[in-house]
Every structure is written in structure tokens, then in C-alpha cells.
Amino acid sequence: MSPPQRAGRAARAPADPPYVRDHHALLEDPDLAVASAAALAEGQRARRLVFGERPLCASLRPNLVPKGAYERIRRVAETLYGALGRLERALLEEEVLRRELDLDPEEERLALADPGFKASSPAARLDGFVGADGVIRFVEYNAESPAGMAYNDELVAVFDGLPVTAAFRRRWRIRAVPLRRHQLAVMLRAYAGRTPERPAIAIVDWHGLPTLTEFEMFQRSFEESGMRTVICAPQELELRRDRLYARGERVHLVYRRVLTSELLARPDIAAPLVNAYLKGAVAVVNSFRAKLLHKKMSLALLSDDRYERLYTAAQRAAIATHIPWTRKVREGHTTYRGKLADLADLVLRHRESFVLKPNDEYGGKGVVLGWTVDAREWEQTFLAALTSSYVVQERVDVQRQAFPVLLESVHFLDLAVDHDPYLFWGRARGNLCRLSSSALLNVTAGDGSVVPTYLVEGRA
User: Fold this and answer.
1) Is pLDDT at 7 greater than 70 in this prediction?
2) How far apart are CA 141 and CA 47, in angstroms?
3) Backbone angles phi, psi at 326, to 5 degrees
4) Fewer beta carbons within 10 angstroms: which end of the chain, N or C?
5) Would the pTM of this model clear 0.90, i.e. be above it?
6) Do residues 74 and 68 make contact, with C-beta atoms less than 8 angstroms apart?
7) What's the rounded Cα separation, in Å, for the pair 205 and 311?
8) Does the domain spanning 325-394 belong to CATH 3.30.1490?
9) Rounded distance, CA 362 to CA 143, Å?
């Protein structure tokens, strides 16, 4: 392997914080870089850290976040989770407000059913970007099935074994935040009060998905905690005499990774899980009620000043600072920066400032960034969005950082970085971090890399 090379770094180096500069300086040693690259490749191979066939991580540097910045983001995320909880209660009570979500009848029926526990999303994730001003802005809320927790923990185990990490720890005090154990804790809290005390768990999603390796990581972790666990597809579930079976084994608790919209699109296959849920025969985490806030319209209902009555003063302040302007795509007027504007005219005239997103998709599907297309394509997308269910969101500042990336050798590339805190029953713990050379950060979309996050607590 060749020594590390720098691509477009001259203008960026002064902006790098000292801990990043120190980490990169260590990789200027060719022997250390080569040994660390080999350890990263072998560690991912041994732990099956792949997304489909691709290695999950291509960077020799983790995401390094100062502890103070992490704590500030954590507090903001918890405040916004509280606001989303108030929104959910209003959606359950107000049919007119619920119509804004464009739920189909079966989604609505399941959302209104009692899940058997208080929080519809015991585990959730806010996806955001820290701008040049140091302020994080959250562009999506993953209320249904936030992925990546087990990947992060396994990547931490790999990075802890890299020679460059050992050398870095002689200069800086860093620590990771475990995630996987919180997922089991919130599931057991949702299950509490049922029998048996140690439930059998089913991890449910379709066969053939690239996330299978993460399911296997969770399965090992749950079983090490004494919970018998089976991975299965929805079609492998059976409801017999109000008891749910997964591949022939009785289960009491479902870790639901299959999305509601995909499941309901196949009603015969959905029936065992849906009926078990409605009968209270099994605890399902996250619940089907999570669909209310998983719709991207949830951020429009946060940011639209017509609904500010729903939130406390502290929540309104957090929304104003950390949630970008978001609206449902439709004809008519809305407020923008304190003024009344025609929505179509505003969005079509200023495409460089906006993003169009399907209300109920994932993995970057259907997302169009106005500054990446010409006026004709943008207009066609907007007109199509008027006849479907879309939101439009104001563009946020996506900062880039230098990361040492494994190509044919180690190259320092400026990559877009997101910061996505997980929330476990409303408490923010740890985060997912993805890197990408493009403006759309999504591993499912076929682009990007996941890196573990470490908190920087000071010099060693």
C-alpha cells in the first residue's frame, strides 16, 4: 500500500480541530497506515460488517465529537422528542390533523389501536447535519425502525483494535457510547407486565435484505442476555389460538424491522402479525402507531406555525432553531420566513434552496435535491408531487470533513457527514454517523460509509 495521499486538503487543514489533525498526522506514518488498514479490513471480514457485499466502513478515522457538542445535541434531541410526543397525542385526538399525514385506512386503523405501552417509538432516531454555525438541523425522524445500532457497536470493537487508535489514545481521551444494549432494554420495558418474564424474540423483516448481518448481531446479543431469538420473514409467522409462532417457535416479543407500508402491501402475509398485535397476543416494537410520526409530514407539522399551539415554549424554540422549514406539497399559500408566499411559486423560483421528498419512503428513494437538477426536471418533479404525497424542505448546510479513506491506498477526502442521535424512550444515547461523497447520505441508496462515533473528552 502507498503512503497516504491528500486530495483537496490544503484549504481545509486549518479548519480541522486539533484532535483530527493529530489523528491524520499519525497516518502519515506508512507502516502505521498499512497495519491499520489491514486490521480494519480483517476486522470487518471477521465480524461480517458488510452491507450486502460491501464493507460497511471505508475510513480509518472514526467520527470524533467533542463531549460538550455531543451533550448539546443530546439535549436538543430530547426536547424535540418531547415535541413529537405532543404532536402524536394531537394526531390521535384530532381527525382533521391526522388527514395531513395521508394515511391509508389500514395504517390509520393500526395507528389508533392501543400498542400496550406508552411510547409508540421506544427506539427512534433523528437524522441531521451540523452546519458551519455549529448548529444541528434535523431533516428526518425515523420513528419506525431505526437501524445501525449493532453496526456501530461492532465497528467500535474493530476500531478499538486498530494500531492508529492505540496511538491516538496516547494523545487523546476518547470513549464510545454503546447502543445495542439500549435496544433490548426498551423492548423489555415495552413488554413489561406480560408473561413469561424472559420472552422469546422474533426479529422480523423480509428475506434477502442487505441488513441481515445486523439482524444476526442483534440475535447474538439478545441470546447472550438469555432471550431465545429467531430471525424470520413475515410469511414465516403464524397465529394459532392467539399465540404467535415464528418458524414454528412460540414468540412473545417482536423486534419489527419490516416497515408498515411494505407489510400492508401484502395483506395475506401481514395478517398473522397484524392480528396478533391487535389482539395483544404479542408486544411489537416499534409499534404500528409509530407510522404517525414516521411520515415525513411530521416535520411539517412541527415547523408550520399554524400548529405552534401544540408545543411548549422551549419546544417551539428548539423547533425554530433545529427543524428546517418543511411543508406539504400542495397548491395554495403558506408562510415562509415570516411572510405569506405562494408555495408553488416559491419552490419553483428557488429550486437551489429546496428538497422534495416522498412523504413515506426510505433509503433516499424519490428524494430530489433542487440544486442538483435543472429547472425543467425540478418543475416536472414538483408537478408530479402535487398529485402524490410529498413534502418540500428547505436546504440545510451539509458540512464536509476530511477522512482517510481506503481506496487503492489511503486518501484524505472531504466527505459529507451526518449526525443522527438515537433516542431510547426519549433519552438520547449515541448516534449513527454516515459519510458520503454525494449530498445524499444514505447507505441503503448505495452510497456512503458508516463510521463509529467516539466522544473526545480531552487530551490524554
Assistant:
1) no
2) 29
3) -140, 135
4) C
5) yes
6) no
7) 35
8) yes
9) 12
